[in-house]
Amino acid sequence: MIPSFKRLLLTLLVLPLLLLPLLSSCSRAGSQIVYHFFDEGSNVLGYQFDMTDSSRTYDISFYSRIDVSMSALDTLKGVELEILLTSPSGRLAYETVAIPRSDFDPEGTGGYQFCKEYRKGIVPSEYGRWNMQVRVSKVKGMEGLGIIVQAN
Length: 152
Description:
By secondary structure, the protein is of the alpha+beta class. It has two helices and nine strands, in the order H-E-E-E-H-E-E-E-E-E-E. The strands form two sheets. It has a five-stranded antiparallel sheet with strand order 1-9-3-7-6, with helices on one face. The radius of gyration is 16 Å and the shape is elongated.
């Protein structure tokens, strides 16, 4: 099988089942949910999301799953995200966010997961379609990163 086909097959069939408990605890109806796998040799992921409704605020969270043993988790310090946001008009904002190991929850299937709130109650400076680029300090056993944007 071609590696990209395997990845697509995993995404369509297996990943939703593995992430169901995580997503149900993290998101509500009306969420924009996107998960991306890392490309070969790259740890940068891109997302687009709408913040168009001026009568609402928005919450943004990140989620992922890490397949590691308990002993390997002991050596893991956490995950660092370098975030570059681009507004609808092209303005840029940059920041680094750390997700500590203490935010990882054990999963019954032998891995760990996290759902980390990034921002809550956002009132965007501009309404429209935003772009986000995230550089992830890749950790062994982590295959990708998801984002949840919830309109309140």
